[in-house]
Amino acid sequence: EVGIEPIGEDVVGWTIDAAEWFGLVERDGDSVKPSRSLDGVEPHELSKRLPTITWKGLLFGRRWDDGDAWDQRGRGGDLALALGWFLAQNPWSDKLDGDSLQLAHERQMNYPPDMTDRLINPTKMSPIIRWAHFFGFGRRDPVNEGLFVPDPTSAIRSILGELPESENPANKFLTEIAKLCPVLDKGAVRKVISKSLHDGMLSWETEKGEISPTTSLALHRLEAADVIKCETVPDAPPSQKRTLTLKGENRSISVVKVLGQ
Fold it and tell me: How far apart are CA 198 and CA 153, in angstroms?
C-alpha cells in the first residue's frame, strides 16, 4: 500500500505564483485560468514546447531596467538573473561543480557590503540547475554528472525559426537572438548582470566583438548538427564580424545561415 500525503495550501499557492511568473496562468478574481501563451498548443506538443513558452514568460513578463541585479529580484527575477549569470560563465575552462560555481559567483558579483542574500547560494543552486536544464540553458556533463555545463544550444535552436531572415551578418544574428532570449549575449538580462560585476570580470560581457564562451559552444554544436552554418566572408565589414570563443582557439565569423531546426 502506498501512502499519499496531502498537498498543503502553501504548496498550491507557491505553484500558482510560479505559474503566474512564467506566464502560464492568469488570475481571474479568486480563480486562475490558462494564459494565452498556451493557446494553440496541442496536448501532444506540450512536452516539446513548454520549456520555451515557460522561459519566455519568465524573461518577458517584466521590464528589465538599467538598475543593479539585486534591485530586480521580485516575481521570479532572481531566477532569471541567476540563469543570466550562469550563461556568462566559461564552459571551456571553468570548474563547473556546484561549490566552484558558487565561489565564482561570489568572486565576480559586486554586491553591496551590507547585502547577505545572493542570487546563487547552496540552497538555490539545485533549483537553478534544474530550471536551466528544463529551459535548455544547460546540461549535466555526460561523463561526470557532478558538473553542470552552461549551454544554451537547445534554447537557441528553439528560436531560430523566429528570426526575420535565415541568413544574417554575425553581429545582427547575435542581436536578434538576444532580443528573442534576453539571457543570451548583450540581452536585457545579461546587461543587468554585466553592470553588477566587479570591474575586469568576464571580458566577453563588455567586449563588442567577442561572443561569449556559452553562445560559442551552442553555435559550434548547432553547426556540427547542420542546423546553422557560420562563415567568414573575406570582404565583410569589420562591424559585421564577431569572434567565437572555442576550446583552445578563437574563430572569426561574419555570416550565420540557418539551415534548419
Answer: 28
